[in-house]
Write a structure and sequence with these properties.
Number of helices: 19
Keywords: Coiled coil, Cytoplasm, DNA damage, DNA excision, DNA repair, Excision nuclease, SOS response
CATH superfamily of the largest domain: UvrC, RNAse H endonuclease domain
Number of domains: 5
Distance between the termini: 39 Å
Strand content: 15-25%
GO molecular function: DNA binding; excinuclease ABC activity
Helix content: 40-55%
Low-confidence stretches: 248-252, 601-606
Radius of gyration: 38 Å
Largest sheet: 7 strands, mixed
Protein name: UvrABC system protein C
Main location: cytoplasm
Number of strands: 18
CATH architecture of the largest domain: 2-Layer Sandwich
Shape: elongated
CATH class of the largest domain: Alpha Beta
InterPro entries: GIY-YIG_endonuc, GIY-YIG_endonuc_sf, GIY-YIG_UvrC_Cho, RuvA_2-like, UVR_dom_sf, UvrABC_protein_C, UvrC, UvrC_RNase_H_dom
Mean pLDDT: 82
């Protein structure tokens, strides 16, 4: 695992919410390794990254491969169980073993019959009946069934009851009738209307719409208490308590919904927005993702929504058209969305909005921490160097040459600890002959701040010189000549031991290798070196190219520069047609150049 990814994981772990949800571990190739559920995402996910000695060998191997963590927050632990089950069945992660089989959580089904039955099943057949669930905890399902059995007299037999068969006397009451669990509709002792009225009450309970049933129980309880029948009142009270336990949200799955796509979009601001995507197949969420999106300012919400939908369809290889739920109403040629206002569909939208809120909150915290770290580096730097003010603007200089050839210098600028590339500057060394780094440093520092003084430009709170005492003293001489030696603090950093030199100090200053202040100075030094090397290479290549071209009779430096500016390289000029050369330098010179390049053996362009 790279240090960058390790830091990213540590930051994700720090910002995990203390809420129920499902977490997903991915490897370096983006492959899903493991799906897990948690009552508290923060506590559960962090437990994987404790001392390896506390983990079994399989979990140790899993943790070693983790490069990225994603999570989805859901309203309850029950919902986390259900979503975990669906994701494992769909994606078959390598480290999920127990739930890879084809079994799933059980449902309660009300059959499609003249006298419907209430059954349990693990497989959904829409032609068989209406389904409720699933139940991640079977004991809760059996409690519901037991409650229904106590509340209503629903038949449990498998007889194919039909009005005509009952009228012909084909069926006889069983033991369930004699012990009071059934009213014997098989013998016509309960009409189809009365029986289906009970089924409708069962349906209310299974949907969670239990207000009427609860009110009925409360009325029975009050009546019994008023007549001092306290045992009966307790009986009804227990029923009410069971109803309250059963009353729960079923946000993650509802089989009646079939296939759905859910796209929740946070309205973009300053070119950035957020989206949460769910894909629901046969009532179960099988894909979920929350992410930031870059939005061109001219794009409409409809265009952004269409783009997100197409990206998700491509990513998850979704085919066919399904209804799309959203928090935004979009009606275009490519996409039509529905905006639910109540019920389970609305709770899906709210769950998406909550996940977007958590992602934005996480990003803001990361940004705040990064800013805090940058400020901390500046504060430490001010303290270590005893600077009069916080060094918000720092400029760093570096030279580059090869044995005095093509000498150049660079200056990079960091503002508030971040590179300000529009402030970078390049310098051609003009007054120094040969490889004299000290004189070159004195020249560029003088030229830089002479111009800043003349143009009333910004001056830094700190200057960093890439080099030891010699380069530092040369730069200090330039500041003295400008009268700035007491106004701008200046230091040098030597590469070998990362020693910090300050004017007048007998011994160098050594900062801790883990110090944010030292890391900031190193970043400045490395960036200045990179910028100088790049400039030096470009200049060397350009002069080398020009030297090849100026060998051609009639081609001077200006013509060579013109050709290079247009064709970018000598090789491209060689490959150009005579007509293309005419467009740049005219017919006469084009003929000379073309004949020379095609009659002269090729040389190394660099």
């Amino acid at each position: 695992m790279s240090s960058t990814n390790k830091a990213h994981l540590e930051e994700t772990l720090r910002l995990l919410p203390d809420e129920a949800g499902v977490y997903r571990f991915y490897d370096a190739d983006g492959k899903l390794l493991y799906v897990g559920k948690a009552k508290s995402l923060r506590k559960r996910v962090r437990s994987y990254f404790k001392s390896p000695a506390q983990l079994n060998r399989k979990t140790q191997r899993l943790v070693q491969q983790i490069e990225r963590i994603e999570y989805t927050v859901v309203p309850s632990e029950q919902d986390a169980l259900l979503l975990e089950n669906n994701l494992i069945k769909t994606h078959q992660p390598k480290y999920n073993i127990l739930l890879k089989d084809d079994k799933t959580y059980p449902y309660i089904c009300i059959t499609k019959e003249d006298f419907p039955r209430v059954l349990t099943t693990r497989r959904i057949d829409q032609y068989m009946g209406e389904y409720f669930g699933p139940y991640a905890q079977p004991t809760a399902m059996y409690e519901v069934l037991d409650l229904l059995k106590q509340l209503f007299t629903i038949r449990s037999c498998h007889l194919p009851l039909t009005p005509s068969g009952i009228a012909q006397g084909k069926f006889a009451a069983c033991l369930e009738y004699h012990i009071g669990n059934c009213q014997a509709p098989c013998e016509g002792k309960q009409s189809m209307e009365e029986y289906n009225a009970d089924i409708e009450q069962v349906r209310h309970v299974l949907k969670g719409q239990i207000a009427e049933v609860k009110a009925f129980f409360e009325e029975k309880m009050r009546a019994a208490a008023a007549d001092l029948r306290f045992e009966e009142a307790q009986f009804w009270k227990e029923k009410i308590e069971k109803l309250q336990v059963f009353q729960q949200k079923r946000t993650v799955i509802n089989p009646k919904y079939g296939d759905l796509a859910v796209i929740v979009l946070n309205k973009p601001q300053a070119g950035k927005g957020y989206a949460c995507f769910f894909y629901i197949r046969q009532g179960a969420i099988i894909h979920t993702e929350t992410f930031a999106i870059q939005c061109p300012l001219e794009d409409t919400e409809a265009e952004i929504m269409e783009r997100v939908y197409e990206q998700m369809k491509t990513k998850y290889r979704l085919s066919g058209q399904v209804p799309v739920l959203s928090n935004l109403e979009i009606h275009s040629e490519q996409l039509h969305t529905q905006v639910p206002q109540i019920g389970d569909k609305r709770r899906l939208i709210e769950m998406g909005l909550h996940n977007i809120y958590l992602l934005r909150k996480e990003e803001l915290k990361k940004k705040a921490k990064k800013q805090e770290q940058e400020n901390q580096a500046l504060i430490e730097l001010q303290d270590a160097l005893q600077l009069p003010v916080l060094p918000r603007r720092i400029e760093c200089f570096d030279n580059s040459n090869i044995q005095g050839q093509h000498p150049v210098a660079s200056m990079v600028c960091f503002i508030n600890g971040k590179p300000a590339k529009s402030e970078y500057r390049k310098f051609h060394i003009k007054t120094v002959q040969g490889p004299d780094d000290f004189a070159s440093m004195r020249e560029v520092v003088y030229r830089r701040y002479k111009r800043q003084l003349d143009e009333a430009g910004a001056l830094p709170e700190l200057i960093v010189i890439d080099g030891g005492k010699g380069q530092l003293n040369a730069a200090l001489d330039a500041l003295k000549e400008l009268g700035l030696e007491t106004q701008i603090p200046i230091i040098g950093i030597a590469k070998r031991l990362e020693e910090i030199y300050r004017p007048g100090d007998k011994y160098p200053l050594h900062l801790s290798k883990k110090s944010p202040a030292l890391r900031l100075i190193q970043r400045l030094r490395d960036e200045a070196h990179r910028f100088a090397i790049t400039f030096h290479r470009d200049k060397r290549s350009k002069e080398s190219f020009e030297s090849v071209l100026t060998q051609i009779p009639g081609v001077g430096q200006k013509t060579a520069q013109k050709l290079l500016q247009h064709f970018r390289s000598v090789q491209a000029i060689r490959e150009a047609t005579e007509e293309a050369l005419v467009q740049v330098v005219g017919k006469s010179k084009a003929q000379q150049i073309y004949q020379f390049l095609h009659n002269t053996p090729q040389q190394d362009d660099e």
